[in-house]
Each structure stands twice: as C-alpha cells, then as structure tokens.
Design a protein that fits this description.
This protein is of the alpha+beta class and 408 residues long. The protein folds into 2 domains: 3-112 and 374-407, Gcn5-related N-acetyltransferase (GNAT) (Aminopeptidase); 171-341, Gcn5-related N-acetyltransferase (GNAT) (Aminopeptidase). Helix content is 38%, strand content 27%. The protein contains 14 helices and 16 strands. It has helices spanning 11-19, 30-36, 85-101, 135-144, 180-185, 189-192, 197-201, 215-229, 236-245, 259-268, 273-286, 324-338, 356-362, 381-407; strands at 3-7, 41-50, 53-66, 69-75, 104-110, 114-119, 122-126, 148-149, 164-169, 204-209, 250-258, 289-298, 307-315, 343-349, 367-371, 375-378. A 9-stranded mixed beta sheet has the order 7-6-15-9-14-13-12-11-10. Helix 12 (324-338) links the parallel strand 13 and strand 14 (343-349). It is elongated.
C-alpha cells in the first residue's frame, strides 16, 4: 500500500498542512481541539502520508459517552479529497482501527461540504459551487464505505452542528473579492438605513478588541440571549481559551450607546416622552454608557476560500429601536472583508428558513448553506442503537435543566 496512516502527528506539520487547504473549517484546527479539551473531551491529530508527504488529515475529538465507552467525533472533517475513493477508504479503515483502540462505539463526521448553496432571496437558484462541488459523488463514496447518513434534518438542534447556515458572500460570482461599499450595496435598502450615519447620529459606537479583560462584559451580555432563547451558553473560562488558542484571530465586538448623546438627540428630535424617560432612567441607574450588543468573530487560518465565523452573539433588550445588533454584525463583516475572506458565516438557522434568525440574517444578502449533514460509522451496533434511542431523552432532560437554571 502506498499510503501510511499516523496517529498523533506533529502539530507544526499539521498546522502547515491545513493552512494550504482551499477550504477549511476552524473546527478542524488543533486550536479547536485545545478549546474543547476538558474532563470529557480530548483530541488527537492524525494524518495520511504518501511517499512521506502529508496528503490527508483530521483532528479527532474523543468524547466519553458511557463508562469506558467513547465516541470519535470529527467535526467538519475529514481534511481529504472525498472524490478519491482509494484515499477515503484508507482513511476509513484506519479510523475504524483507531475507534477499536479507544473503545468507541461510533465514529461521527459532518464533512465540510454542502448539498446546496442558494441565495435566501431566490431559493430556486443555485448561487455558486465552492462548497457543493461533486456533492453527489462525495455523498455516495461515503455511503459505499459503510457510513450511515443520519438524514437531511431541518431542525437546527437535531445535529451536532446546524445543517443550515446563513452566510454573507464577500465575493462576486467569479470569486473576486468585493469592497466594503460593494458588499454594503448588496444589502436590502431599508436595512442599510440602520448602518453608519444612523448610529453615529444617535451616539452608537463599536469596539473591536482582543483584550481578555473584556470577556467578563461579553459574557454578561450573552446572558440576555440565554434568557430570551432558554439556553445555557459558555462561561468566561471557555472564551478565555478561544482568545488564547485562536491567538490574533479571535475578536470580541461590542456595540455601545453614549446615553447623554442619545438623550440630546431625542430631545432635539422631539421624540416621544416615554423614550426620553427611558434613557434618563438608564443614565441614573448605570451611568453614561450602555453596552447593548456583542459578538465573537473568528478569522480563518487557510489561504484560499476563507470563511470567518460569527460564533456567539448577545443583545441587551434595552433600546431596541437603535438596532445596535445590526451594526455589530456589520462590524464583523467589515473585519472579514479587511482580512480577505470569501464569506462571513453568521451561523446556524432553522431549515424552515422562517425562524427569526433566518429573517434577521437574510438582510445581509445571505446565502443559505445546506451542509451535507452527519455520517455515522457504526463500530458497535448494540451500543449505537441503544444510545440512539436514549440520547434524545437525555438531551431533552438537559435542555429542561438548562431552562430552569437560566430562570433561576
């Protein structure tokens, strides 16, 4: 056999390899493995060599499922040519052996390719094919090797990663990078009104920072999202790890309101009395500055088709008319443009495309990326089907616990 498989390959070699990939998800970076690593998760780096040259690789997360039983999860992996049946088979055979070594009942992958890419405003028309090249061939190659496709779910919570993502295109149809002005013009005209001078006139400003001291403020704003959506997000330690391991590529973005400035604007504009009173009360209770909105953006490491990731966002429920969250999102898009990204991924949406997230994110001329979904390589059938039956129940129990914890 001309290929050689190695476990625990050198970090430097792995990172050099992934930097050269035309398409890459941050979830296959070693940095993501370091962020996820804790008592229940650990990671390993694996690679396939051809004549001593690295030709395929993956970052594998190993997760405890039950006592002495694990699962292998390869998020947005493998980093491989899925069209190459021989290479894919060699990877699969060696991953199976690795699963037995780590006493895993399953290997789960959700590859970094799409079933479709369509403009939200015209879902009947394919947008481009950067992520959908040879989808059917890749899909069938996995099925032929024994991977079980878990289905084309539209539920945002069904899979480990949402199958549907709303992505802002920062390129034209020929993959030429667009300017900030060109991207802005692609947004809906009514929506553009709320960006730029609209905020400036009302005392809204934006801060982009890598300062870890700002994480506490970031997490405080995220709590509003926890309350409104009934979910439990991450703690300060987790976001410290992101800023540490994605050094110089992870940014916190804040949208702030100069309350006295805004109050003066309202008075000069003869605004409604209740709006003026609301701002006066805010000044009396918190002072002159209110942080209304925040987000976390990751910049990519690879060199070609680059996608930034808008990972977490939180919004204070005060002063909704200012639409500060729209400005925060646009700051993330501008940062992506400055760093020569092809796309800015605004994150998961429901496959119905009628949920509030879809509607909000679509205003940025969004493309709907429908990822291929999850493929399971079953190692132990009894454990696999037993866990498959019990996991939804456990997930529902944990969801209810999180709601209760958030309310308290």
């Amino acid at each position: 056999m001309e290929y050689t498989f190695k476990e625990n390959i050198d970090s430097k070699e792995y990172n050099e390899f992934i930097r050269k990939q035309p398409i890459l998800s941050f979830m296959q970076e070693e940095a993501w493995g370091k962020v996820k690593q804790n008592n229940n998760w650990k990671y390993i780096l694996c690679g396939i060599y051809k004549q001593k040259k690295l030709v395929a690789a993956c970052m594998i997360l190993i997760r405890k499922a039950l006592k002495k039983i694990n699962m292998l999860y390869i998020p947005r992996g493998y980093i491989i040519d899925f069209n190459n049946e021989e290479l894919l088979k060699f990877m699969t055979d060696n991953i199976k052996e690795l699963a037995h070594k780590y006493n895993a009942y399953i290997v789960k992958i959700d590859p970094n390719f799409c079933k479709s890419e369509r403009l939200y405003k015209n879902l009947e028309q394919e947008y481009d094919c950067n992520y959908t090249n040879n989808y059917e061939t890749k899909h069938q190659n996995l099925l032929k090797l024994g991977y079980r496709h878990t289905g084309f779910s539209t539920n945002i919570h069904k899979n480990f990663q949402p199958r549907y993502n709303m992505v802002v295109p920062l390129i034209d149809r020929n993959n030429n990078l667009l300017t900030e002005e060109e991207v802005l013009k692609s947004f809906k005209s009514k929506f553009r009104y709320y960006l730029g001078s609209f905020h400036e006139k009302r005392g809204v400003s934006f801060e982009t920072t890598q300062d870890k001291k700002k994480i506490k403020n970031f997490v405080e704003i995220l709590k509003y999202t926890e309350i409104t959506q009934g979910i439990k997000l991450r703690n300060e330690e987790y976001f410290n790890k992101i800023l540490k391991h994605f050094y110089n590529r992870a940014y916190l973005i804040f949208g702030k309101v100069d309350l006295p400035f805004y109050l003066n604007f309202l008075r000069e504009s003869h605004a409604k009395e209740e709006e003026i009173i609301e701002v006066e009360e805010l000044i009396n209770s918190i002072g002159d500055t209110l942080t209304v909105s925040t987000a976390l953006l990751l910049l990519p490491i690879n060199q070609n088709i680059r996608m930034s990731e808008y990972l977490y966002a939180g919004n204070n429920l005060a002063l909704p008319k200012l639409n500060v969250s729209a400005g925060v999102c646009f700051e993330a898009i501008k940062l992506s443009i400055q760093n020569k990204c092809y796309y800015c991924n605004l994150g998961g949406i429901d496959g119905s495309l009628k949920d509030p997230l879809s509607i909000f994110k679509s205003k940025y001329n969004g493309i709907v990326f429908e990822y291929a979904g999850e493929y399971d390589l079953i190692i132990n059938k009894k454990l696999y089907y037993g866990y498959k039956l019990g996991y939804p129940i456990l997930r529902k129990i944990n969801h209810l616990k999180n709601i209760k914890r958030t309310k308290n």
